[in-house]
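ingest -> validate -> predict -> emit
validate: passed (alphabet ok, no gaps, 122 aa)
predict: started
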Amino acid sequence: MAANKSGRLGEDAAAEFLIKNGYDITQKNFRTRLGEIDIIATRGNYIVFAEVKTRRRNSMILPREAVDAKKQARLIKAAEMYLSTHDIGTLQPRFDVIEVTTFAGEAFMIEKINQIENAFTL
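emit:
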């Protein structure tokens, strides 16, 4: 399966996971010239900027390892752009990484979804 297709399916699965866990999805695939945020959601006192990484279970690196310092910097800049153009009231920003692990093989079958809350900070 093509990486971009499995990535989109992973993002859809992550959004469903968040909804099932009490989050409200504000926006998916927020794009700016500075970067993209996969999912923006709210729950409680937080606005969550979530980066979704989908990998097969036998991948050489864990999904979270793909969110390196360079990627984090782009996410922070994109979040700053979002915050400068949207009124979020008293919500506190938080950066999460959502790992979607699939079984090996051609079919897209989720093995596990893991949300890492507050994975990195400004």
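The chain has one domain: 3-59+70-120.
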